Amino acid sequence: MVPTWRHGRERLYVCGPDGENVAWYDRESSRVNLIAEDRRDAVLEALQPFLAGPVTVGPPPAPTPVELARLSLHPDDDLAPNRPGEALLVELERDPRPGHRLRPDPRRRALTAEQTAGEALDRLEEAGSHTLHSVPLPGGDRLHHLLIGPGGLFAVHALYARRQRVRVADPMVTVGRREALPLLRRLRAEADRATYALTAEVHPVLALVGPPADVRLTLPPRGVRVLQDGELAALGRQGGVLKPADVEALHAMARDRRTWERV
């Protein structure tokens, strides 16, 4: 018996003596899916202590259109395997640049920010969400993270701000003594491009990774949420915007690299 979480749903897999899956029990739907019909009695006997009330027993359901689209997606076009900070990892591998004690490579800090935020977002899968990382956009731009869940769609930009003072005066963002940049304008533009690609509203989020020493907002930024990395879990606690089927359909569309070629 192997308990797992898949797409936010709890499943209990039943394995044969050779370790091969012969059935799984989906608690939410109260259904036992049999891969090997000849082992029905043995499977039900093994699952008996875990069954709550009546259950439906039968072969696995036919693949949905979303599942068929995923199966037909070429591996080179599938963005789902991207790791947090995938683009930076590739860039650093190709051009590592020797480090300097007083002037560390800023790409390393940016990578830390993306990995920290990405790991926090990946943990939301148990709540029925999916996160894509390093989503490429035409022109060399990219979304650091795209969260798709019951609470909607969020384009999350990770910014390294450890022990730094952060000042947000829309559209400018200042970290420490660095030059102020119109980052919020860029985030809104990227979210608009994602909205166009997916035909569903995508909300921009600025994730401050650190934690920062201090954060000051002159005014609430227009249309952009500013969160610290420890607050990203709140995005997964929202609900009532997308149904599970909508989440899966949007994830299937977003993970296809070709979806982003026209934005």
Automatic annotation (TrEMBL):
<feature type="compositionally biased region" description="Basic and acidic residues">
    <location>
        <begin position="94"/>
        <end position="108"/>
    </location>
</feature>
<protein>
    <recommendedName>
        <fullName>NERD domain-containing protein</fullName>
    </recommendedName>
</protein>
<feature type="region of interest" description="Disordered">
    <location>
        <begin position="94"/>
        <end position="114"/>
    </location>
</feature>
